[in-house]
Amino acid sequence: MIALIIGIICILFTVWAILPFSFPMGLNWGNEIIKFLMGGGPILSLLIGIIAFFIGIADIRDKIEEKKELKEEKENAKD
After folding, report:
1. Range of the domain at 73
2. Which of 16, 35, 39, 54 is most buried, judging by how many CB atoms fall within 10 Å of its CB?
3. What is the pTM of this model?
């Protein structure tokens, strides 16, 4: 319940900060937020790419290990 309340407060603050009016109605941070997103986009893309790369390597290793286990099971079944 507390997480829900904190989430709603954060969403309301974000909307209030972006509003293009003077202080009581909003902070008018819209342009700064757009600049932050433009600068953070490539960095976020890089981090996601690195994570995906390592997940791909782990998946390949798992497939190789699975093939080895199946081969060992077939050899044990023949004996």
Report:
1. 2-78
2. 16
3. 0.61
